[in-house]
Design goal:
The protein is α+β, with helices and mostly antiparallel strands. The chain is built from 17 helices and 13 strands. It is elongated and about 115 Å long.
Length: 492
C-alpha cells in the first residue's frame, strides 16, 4: 500500500496551474510527498516544516548570496519543494542557487506570475486532505481484514502476509526479548528496518520490522503515521501468543520444579508430558542452582522473568532458590553471568550465589548436589560458582555439625580468638581463614584480603599468641582450620 499522500507529480499535473516549469531534478516527482503548504518570504527562520511545499516570490533576496541563503535555509528545514513566482519576467534564478538545489535534490518549480498563491494553497490543501482521507479509508479496510483474520482463527504469520502484500515489503514481528514470532522471510541478516515498536499498557511487548527495496527511511516514516491501524490488531495476536507462552512457561516451571524436588516421578507418562513442553528427560544434564537469600516476591519475580527470557534451558524457582538444567557442554559460568546481569537490571538488590552439579540423568539427585554447592557458596559468600569439588570438605565434615562434642571442642579452641575479635571486627578469624584458603601463602593472602603484608603478619602473630601454638604446627593448625570452617558452616 502506498502512503497515499499528495505528491509533487500530482501538483505538476494539476490542470488549475498550467505553465509551471520544474527547474531542477532530484527524486522522481511521484516520490516527493507533500504534507503541508505555506507562503514564505525571506528570512525563512523556523516557519518551514518537513515535507512542506513552499510558495515564495523571494522579494527579499536582493542578490544571489541572499537568494542562496534563503533556499539553503528551506532545504535544511526539510522543504519538499519550492515554487517560485517572479513579477518581473526578466528575473531568473541565479545559477549558484540552481546548482545548490540540484546538488541537494531540492525541486525548484517556476510558476507563472498570474497564478494566485491563495488559489494554489486552497487547492493543494484540498488535495492533501483528500489524499489523507483516501489513505485512512484504505488503512481502515486493511485493519478490518486483519481483525476478520484474527476472529476467524488466522495465524500471526498470515497477518504479516497481509501486511507484506499491502506494503510490498517483507515483515518480521519479534517479542520484547527480540525473538522472532513470525516473518514472511528469513529473520537473519541486517536488512530489517524498524517500522514501529509495539506497546501495550505502557510497556514494550514487541517490534515490527520491514525489509526490501521499498523499506526506505522516508517510506517507513510515512507508514508510521498509520501505525494505529496496524498496531491494534497485531496486539491481539501478541496477547494471545503471550497468554499461550505464559501458560506454557508456568507448566514447564511446575514440571521442572516437581522433577527437581522429587515430587514428580520420572515415568514414561511424565516424559511424554515433558516432551510436549519442549523438555527432554533421560538425557545427560548438569544442574545449576542459586540459593535463596531471603528474596522477597518482587526479587523472585525479577529472577523468574530473567529465567524465562534470557535462557532456553529448563528452569524454575523452588522453595530453596532457582534451578536450571543445562546440557553438559554448556558453560555454567556464562549462563550464571547472563542471569546475574539480567536480574540485576531489574532488581539490583537481588543476590545470587551459584552452585553446580556434576553430569547425570536423575534431576532430583543433580538438584540436591547443585543446591548443596549453592548453599555453601551463600554461607561462605563466594564470588564464583561452587562446583562439586568445592563441597567435598563440607560433606566430610557435615556429620560433625550435629555433634555436641564437636561443638564444645570448637568453642574451647576458638574462644581466645573470638574474645579478641569481638572488639576488633573479626579480623583474626578472617585473616586465618584467608591464610588457609590461600594455602598458607602470606603474600597471596594479603592481596586477597587487601592488607599490607606486615599488617597481616601482625594479625597472624597475635593469633598464635592467643592460641598458644605456632601455625607451623601442622596438626594443630589443621584442627584450627576445621574448627573455623565448621563454625562458618554452622552459622556461628
Amino acid at each position: 500500500m502506498e502512503n497515499a499522500l499528495f505528491t509533487l507529480a500530482e501538483l505538476l499535473a494539476m490542470p488549475q496551474f498550467p505553465g509551471q516549469v520544474l527547474l531542477t531534478g532530484g527524486p522522481p516527482p511521484e516520490e516527493v510527498p507533500i504534507r503541508h503548504v505555506s507562503v514564505i518570504e525571506p528570512p525563512a527562520d523556523d516557519f518551514v516544516r518537513p515535507e512542506e511545499l513552499v510558495l515564495t516570490t523571494a522579494l527579499g533576496c536582493a542578490d544571489a548570496a541572499g537568494f542562496l541563503t534563503f533556499i539553503a535555509d528551506l532545504q535544511r528545514a526539510g522543504a519538499a519543494a519550492v515554487c517560485l513566482s517572479f513579477e518581473d519576467p526578466r528575473r531568473r534564478v541565479p545559477e549558484e542557487v540552481l546548482a545548490f538545489a540540484r546538488a541537494r535534490a531540492l525541486p525548484l518549480v517556476l510558476l507563472p506570475w498570474e497564478l494566485r498563491f491563495a488559489d494554489i494553497v486552497e487547492n493543494v490543501l484540498d488535495r492533501i486532505r483528500t489524499a489523507r482521507e483516501q489513505a485512512a479509508a484504505r488503512w481502515e479496510s486493511f485493519q478490518s481484514r486483519l481483525l476478520s483474520l484474527y476472529l476467524s482463527g488466522g495465524t500471526l504469520g498470515q497477518a504479516l502476509g497481509l501486511l507484506a502484500g499491502e506494503t510490498w515489503c517483507d515483515a518480521l514481528l519479534t517479542d520484547r526479548a527480540g525473538r522472532a514470532l513470525a516473518s514472511t522471510a528469513p529473520a537473519q541478516g541486517d536488512g530489517w528496518k524498524l517500522l514501529l515498536p509495539l506497546r501495550a499498557q505502557g510497556r514494550e511487548v514487541g517490534a515490527l520490522f520491514l525489509s526490501g527495496g521499498r523499506a526506505t527511511p522516508e517510506y517507513l516514516d510515512g507508514l508510521s503515521a498509520w501505525a494505529p491501524y496496524i498496531l491494534t490488531p497485531l496486539l491481539l495476536w501478541l496477547d494471545r501468543a503471550e497468554l499461550r507462552s505464559a501458560a506454557q512457561d508456568q507448566l514447564r516451571e511446575e514440571l521442572v520444579r516437581g522433577l527437581a524436588e522429587g515430587a514428580i516421578p520420572d515415568t514414561a507418562e511424565n516424559r511424554a508430558r515433558a516432551q510436549l513442553l519442549g523438555l527432554r528427560l533421560g538425557q545427560p544434564a548438569v544442574c545449576l542452582a542459586a540459593a535463596d537469600e531471603g528474596w522477597d516476591d518482587a526479587l523472585r519475580e525479577a529472577l523468574r522473568a530473567a529465567l524465562h527470557t534470557r535462557v532456553s534451558a529448563p528452569a524454575a524457582l523452588t522453595g530453596r532458590g532457582a534451578v536450571l538444567f543445562l546440557s553438559p557442554d554448556e558453560p555454567p559460568e556464562r549462563t550464571a553471568e547472563v542471569l546475574r546481569a539480567a536480574a540485576a537490571a531489574h532488581a539490583p538488590a537481588l543476590r545470587l550465589h551459584w552452585g553446580c552439579s556434576g553430569s547425570g540423568r536423575d534431576w532430583a539427585s543433580l538438584y540436591e548436589e547443585a543446591m548443596l554447592a549453592a548453599d555453601l557458596c551463600r554461607r561462605e559468600d563466594g564470588a564464583r560458582i561452587y562446583l562439586p569439588a568445592d563441597t567435598q570438605l563440607f560433606r566430610i565434615l557435615r556429620p560433625c555439625l550435629g555433634s555436641g562434642g564437636s561443638r564444645s571442642m570448637r568453642e574451647r579452641l576458638l574462644a581466645p580468638l573470638r574474645d579478641y575479635d569481638r572488639g576488633h571486627g573479626g579480623e583474626l578469624e578472617t585473616a586465618l581463614l584467608g591464610l588457609f584458603d590461600c594455602g598458607g601463602n602470606v603474600s597471596e593472602t594479603a592481596r586477597a584480603l587487601h592488607l599490607h603484608r606486615q599488617a597481616l603478619r601482625y594479625r597472624l602473630q597475635k593469633a598464635e599468641e592467643l592460641l598458644g601454638f605456632p601455625l607451623s604446627d601442622h596438626r594443630r593448625a589443621l584442627a584450627l582450620e576445621l574448627a573455623l570452617r565448621l563454625g562458618r558452616l554452622d552459622g556461628e
